[in-house]
Amino acid sequence: MSTHSCDIVIQGGGPVGLACAVWILQKLPQAKLTLIDRNPINDADLKAGDSRGIALSHGSKLLLDTIHAWPKDGAEIHRVHVSQAGRFGRALMTREELNQNALGHIVRYHDIHMALRQALRTIQEKSPHFDWQHITGDGAFEATQAKCVVHAEGGLFKQQDWVESGKDYGQSALVGLIEVEKAEPHQAWERFTPEGPLAILPSHYGSNTLNLVWCGSPESSQHRLQLSDAEFLISLQNEFGSRVGRFLKVQDRRLYELGLNYRKEIIQDTEVWIGNAAQTLHPVAGQGLNLGLRDAFLLAEKLCRVFAGPPEEQNPRQIHQALEEYAQSRKADRTATIGLTDFMARVFTSNLTPIVIARGLALSALQWLPPVKTALARQMMFGRR
Ligand SMILES: Cc1cc2nc3c(=O)[nH]c(=O)nc-3n(C[C@H](O)[C@H](O)[C@H](O)COP(=O)(O)OP(=O)(O)OC[C@H]3O[C@@H](n4cnc5c(N)ncnc54)[C@H](O)[C@@H]3O)c2cc1C
Fold this sequence. Notes:
The structure is a single chain. 37% of the residues lie in helices and 29% in strands. The longest helix has 32 residues, at 316-347. The chain is of the alpha/beta class and 385 residues long. Helix 9 (353-368) packs across helix 10. An eight-stranded mixed beta sheet has the order 6-5-11-12-13-10-14-17. The chain contains ten helices and 17 strands. Bound molecules: flavin-adenine dinucleotide. Flavin-adenine dinucleotide is lined by residues 11-17, 36-39, 52, 54-55, 109, 152-156, 173, 175, 213, 256, 275-277, 283, 286-290, 292. Flavin-adenine dinucleotide binds at residues 11-17, 36-39, 52, 54-55, 109, 152-156, 173, 175, 213, 256, 275-277, 283, 286-290, 292.
């Protein structure tokens, strides 16, 4: 096997690894950068993919716009209605209150992945030292030696080969596309049920085709996966009620196990972990990819500063120092986002009476205390700055 050397290697061609590569090449076209990608070279050979609907914040849209990687198919969220099934307490957030065009956007994972692959292909033409290596199956590939290794191998909870800090919430998410009778365009619903959050989110297929993320115990979720379409729709209708009229059709049901797995230290010598490789979150607050994109953007900035400098300064000590600055700069955002997501996942799945009451009060407080609501919405839209 031959060996290939470069300055930076990114391991993982998911959304976060791809975005990091594009931001590095945009700032530093001469970068000696290698991307190790387990996905096939041709878009057509990618699995019809991961069709889960992902909520991206306005902050993520602004970041992806800088590299022309905003997917063309997406749906804006103008209102979010939060409630708990059969209990008091509700909150409504609107784009007008926050003075924004949209509270967020729903885009399918596959479309984000494709848009970033295209952005990287475009910038690749102007990047003479960029090497995009596709390693599929057990095929041989060039061993790569790099001054700095960026881990963006991502992964799903319980499918990662590392487990550090975190929590198994004993939950799975059933996702799918549903058709309903009469949904308000651009409206998202988050309903807290005794088993976990149930989110109904807009899609780009039209206002009556919605993305479903239904969290429940692994047993109930597995059972729901196996129900016939008709039985499934009845069970969903019973849980959600009639706010979007009748549920008419369901397709593409899939299950994901949910939990929190995060690294306390995201750097070691000249290696760094970003995106899901650094933290894998419960989707209750829709924050995993948003946080990962912020990781990628800020890391690209730090690395470009080092590798644009004189070669004698590109030594392990300077690289480690840049990574330390990076880790420091990510601390507040990571801690707040991991903490908020963990808090929501735990509080909104508890059935203990005092917590149910506190939860109702919290939702009412959100409704009646606009500054609290705005602060929470801003954290979710832009992260901690
Ligand atoms: C049900 C569900 C709903 C979600 N909803 C939201 C949401 O609404 N909003 C949000 O922001 N986030 C959401 N997330 C989280 C989001 O999907 C992840 O945070 C995001 O996919 C992380 O991107 P990534 O690139 O770090 O990892 P991944 O998407 O896992 O990509 C990693 C890539 O690296 C590759 N790879 C793995 N190992 C190697 C290796 N050794 N060498 C090379 N390549 C490798 C993999 O094949 C993959 O292509 C949700 C997650 C789930 C499960």
